[in-house]
Amino acid sequence: MSTLLIHSLKGLAIGHARRINGKSMADLPMLESGAFILIENGRIKKTGPASECPERADRVIDGTGRYLLPAWVDSHTHLVFAGSREREFVDRIRGLSYQEIAARGGGILNSAARLRGMAEDALYQDALERLEEVTASGTGAIEIKSGYGLSTEAELKILRVIRRLKEDSQIPIRATFLGAHSVPTEYKENREAYIRLIEEEMLPRIQAEGLADYMDVFCEKVAFSVEETERLIEAGYKAGLKPKIHVNQFYAMGGIPMACRRKAVSVDHLEVINEADIEALQQSETIATLLPTAPFFLNDPYPEARRMLDADIPVALATDFNPGSTPGGRMSFVLSLACIKMRMLPAEAINAATINGAAALEWDAELGSLHTGKWANMILTKKIPSIDYIPYRFGRDQIERVFVKGEM
Predict the structure, then answer these.
(1) Could you tell me which of 90, 133, 182, 353 has the fewest CB atoms within 10 Å of its CB?
(2) Helix (H/G/I), strand (E/B), else coil: 83
(3) DSSP of 177-213, one letter per residue?
(4) Distance CA 152, CA 324 (A)
């Protein structure tokens, strides 16, 4: 038995035990003034005030002046990719839109072409470096999608890289199959053939190898229609994969009501939203995952987070780390943008980046808060005046130590 005691904390952000709806997200349960946490064999054994603090443990850390909170749960990333796309960054500065870049073979198709020619080992090493980078900045669990392959072998290559990362990483990882990220160039005149390729070849092989936990589809005018998305969701269910759907990044096409009806675990992006979308989310268990670094980088409108919170919708925050629209995976910056650009309170942003992020990966029973029995994936801050200082002091992580299962 191995024990870790962190004592004399300025604040211990216990958080909520399970997912939390929008109107309650401003509440962040907290123990203050001398609180402690005791970890045993990687799980939380006990939390409490100074008067109940144990006298001994195998390892002891003085938390004076510091806050302890759950590690970030990044529930939407594209961490496995080949190369960078700074040329498109310059094109956007010159006035080209995301859609215009995609129409001339850039964007996702650019990344897919590069990835197909990259060896699996090289792809793995690059992804591992990115994973270590985000872990050091406080991410304690993550989702990683495929989607930059757009052929059977390339999509399988990405998912096998994710499997290797699962095996080698300190933090837990969910894998999501996103073969329906875009229609590849060779199928532009025959979309039906590509959809059948996903249904009849990709999904059976992914299921046979157990390579994915979820199925995703990019439901947008530049990608797949609502009808095509629903068809692919059904194919995913048949292969044992629940849906997590890219939707409403640029247009409100009816994708959110359909995804909610098909019991999607989450709908992600939501830069554009209407009343029918709000009503569908209110009547479902689907989590609204917002990715503010994407509109920041693309100079697009931000999601109406305040509208969703006031409608009592559970909101999660994630990075969307990818080479085209979010070439960075720093969750603390996501929180700052959520507060500054989407008018989320710091407590709401922290809940969205921890317990609701965990719920968006169906991990809220194990991660996302500091409740007894959960894994001790945690962030110990530097000496800071309050927990609100984390999103306030944007551009710099206020992190002294990151713990995964009680280990630094």
Answers:
(1) 90
(2) coil
(3) EEEETS--GGGTT-HHHHHHHIIIIIHHHHHHHT--S
(4) 22
At residue 94, φ and ψ (nearest 5 deg) are: -80, -5
231-242: pLDDT as tens digits: 999 999 999 999
pLDDT (average), residues 191-207: 98
Question: If pLDDT is split at 50, 70 and 90, which confidence band does 255 have?
Answer: very high
| pLDDT top residue among 109 and 377 | 377
Residues 6+ apart with CB under 8 A from 227: none
Distance (Å, rounded) from C-alpha 158 to C-alpha 115? Answer: 9
Q: Count the neighbouring beta carbons within 10 Å of the beta carbon of residue 105.
A: 11
Contact 139, 171 (CB under 8 A): yes
**For residues 362 and 265, what is the distance between their CA atoms, to the nearest angstrom?**
8
Please give the domain boundaries of the chain with CATH numbers for all domains.
3-70+370-403 (2.30.40.10), 73-359 (3.20.20.140)
In the predicted structure, residue 205 carries a pLDDT above the cut 70: yes
State the average pLDDT over residues 138-162. Answer: 96
| pLDDT at 311 > cutoff 70 | yes
Given this model, what pLDDT does residue 176 score? Answer: 98
* Phi-psi label, residue 312: left if phi above 0, alpha if psi -120 to 50, beta otherwise: left
Residues 6+ apart with CB under 8 A from 295: 271, 301, 302, 303, 341
Per the CB < 8 A criterion, the answer to whether 46 and 374 are in contact is no
Q: What single-letter DSSP state applies at residue 85?
A: -
Q: What is the pLDDT of residues 61-86, one digit of tens each?
A: 999 999 999 999 999 999 999 878 78
Distance CA 134, CA 72 (A): 10
Angle at which helix 331-342 crosses helix 346-353, to 10 degrees, equals: 140
In angstroms, the CA 196 to CA 224 distance is 13
Mark 270-302 as b/e (b = at least 16 C-beta within 10 Å). Answer: bbbbeeebbebbeebebbbbbbbbbbbbbebeb
Backbone phi, psi, residue 77, to 5°? -145, 165
Distance in angstroms (rounded) separating the CA atoms of residues 223 and 294? 17
